[in-house]
Design goal:
Elements lengths: L3 E8 L2 E8 L2 E4 L2 H5 L1 H18 L12 H15 L11 H4 L1 H5 L4 H17 L4 H12 L2 H5 L2
Antiparallel strand pairs: 1-2, 2-3
Length: about 150
């Protein structure tokens, strides 16, 4: 069994996840692997189109400035995947307080993840890379849902 060491380093002015395995160095940069800003923009647009068409989710956004939310989401996803954007929005937990107070729960979060995976695949991200992105988003479940 190979041991993989994870380290975050500053590289070209960005924070990168560096994986070291058996003496070799790999940069895990999903941002570039999936196609960068163009892909994130297209996937985010498709994702919110799906969310707003979903009767189970639409009501969470009735008082939301969607242009602002889409821009913040692109920044967040870019940062999460190792891209150059710095997320300057609200803390993830704070940003979802209103939705939590209006019934947001695990089933809704699962729907969000499914819509985002579908959006990624629609814009050309292969299934394996889309699963990696969804795994990173899944890691935010607790922060989004728990008071």
């Amino acid at each position: 069994m190979t041991t993989i060491k994870r380290t975050f380093v500053s590289w070209n002015g960005l924070i990168r996840l560096v994986l070291t395995a058996a003496g070799s160095l790999m940069i895990d940069d999903l941002f570039d692997l999936i196609g960068g800003n163009r892909t994130i923009r297209a996937a985010t647009e498709s994702f919110y189109d799906k969310v707003l068409a979903d009767d189970s989710l639409r009501h969470f956004f009735k008082r939301t400035d969607m242009a602002h939310l889409r821009a913040r989401q692109r920044m967040f996803i870019s940062m999460l995947l190792g891209g150059p954007a710095a997320y300057t929005g609200k803390d993830v937990h704070e940003a979802h307080a209103w939705a939590r107070n209006h019934g947001l729960h695990d089933t809704h979060f699962d729907l969000f993840l499914n819509h985002f995976r579908e959006a990624l695949e629609e814009v050309g991200v292969n299934s394996d890379e889309a699963k990696k992105v969804i795994k990173l988003l899944e890691g935010r479940r607790h922060a989004v849902l728990n008071p």
